[in-house]
Amino acid sequence: MGRNQRKFNALDIVLVGMFAALMAIGANVTSFIVIGGVPVTLQPFFATLAGALLGSRLGPVSMIVYTLIGLAGAPVFAGFRGGFSILTSPTFGFILSFIIIAYVIGKMVESKEQPTKMTFFIAAFIGLAINYILGTNYMYFAYQFLASLENMPYGVVWGWMAAPFVKDFILTIFVAMIAPRIYAVIRKSSLHTNPATKKVS
Description:
Layout: H1 10-28, E1 34-35, E2 38-39, H2 43-71, H3 92-110, H4 117-145, H5 154-160, H6 162-189
Antiparallel strand pairs: 1-2
Helix pairs in contact: 1-2, 2-3, 2-4, 2-6, 3-4, 4-6
């Protein structure tokens, strides 16, 4: 049975829980820094890592679990927020993007029998693009229709994202560098269950 078809085992549950917890930590460790109403977080870093290491199955599941925990009321969103009120927040698009990021990056890595460092690099930056395109556009339309700020210029919203982008650009390079190493260790440790597993080149 393929990895994407098998049932969840104990290790899967642990990994999903671990990355959901990392997302909660990443949401708040630097969230006291706010630019244009957008908290500066480490979540894109962990969402990218989840996709690269957990794949297109467990990666997005960990992001969904994190989101559901927050919607249930746990203070795991940026600024220690929780509950359904986040659905009307201009930054909710970024939370949604984490699920897509993990899935897309996972698919890209899985598409290669032997993913190279360049595979991780390209996947990580595609994930960053998804995060900013979905999150920033959602924020713009939220200000337009939810906050009734019809005169909010589109360029201003993107301007707010300039400072966080520098941080995320650097962290994306970092995650693209470390992910292949961690992935190789994980693949090597699974050789006893999958003899065809090979190390990242």
